[in-house]
Amino acid sequence: MIFIVVIGGIGTIEGPIIGTLIFFALRETLADLGTIYLMVLGLFAIVMMLKAPKGVWGFIRDRFDLQLFPLGYRVKRDPSKGA
C-alpha cells in the first residue's frame, strides 16, 4: 500500500490511482521472475523517489500543469501562533 502511494504521489487523489495502475502493471509483467520481482519493485521505488520525489502524478502535474481533481490539501501554519 505504501509503495502505491509513494510511486503515485502523496496528497492528491490522482496519485494513488496512478500508483495502483503502475503497481498492478508491474506485478503482472514481472510475475514470472519469482522473488526477483520484489527486488525490481524496490529498485523502481528507489529510482522514483530520487528522480520524482512527488511521485509520478506530482511529476506530471508540475511538468504539464495538469490537474484532474483540484481537491488536494495543504497544511497552513497560523502566523499568530509562535513556533
Instruction: Tell me the strand percentage band.
Output: under 5%
Mean pLDDT: 84
**What is the chains' assembly state?**
single chain
Give the overall silhouette: elongated
End-to-end CA span = 34 Å
Query: What's the alpha carbon Rg, rounded to whole Å?
Result: 16 Å
Low-confidence stretches: none
Task: Explain this structure.
With about 80 residues, the protein is an all-alpha fold. It has one domain (about 1-65). It is about 60% helix and about 0% strand. The protein has four helices and no strands. Helix 1 (about 1-10) packs across helix 2 (about 15-30), helix 1 (about 1-10) packs parallel to helix 4 (about 55-65) and helix 2 (about 15-30) packs across helix 4 (about 55-65). The longest helix is centred in the first third of the chain and has 16 residues, at about 15-30. The N and C termini lie far apart (about 35 Å). One of its GO terms (cellular component) is plasma membrane.
Descriptors:
83 residues; mainly alpha; 4 helices; elongated; branched-chain amino acid transmembrane transporter activity; Branched-subunit amino acid transport system permease; transmembrane; transmembrane helix
Outline:
The protein is an all-alpha fold. The protein has helices at residues 2-8, 14-29, 36-51, 55-64.
Present the secondary structure layout.
Blueprint: H1 2-8, H2 14-29, H3 36-51, H4 55-64
Helix pairs in contact: 1-2, 1-4, 2-4
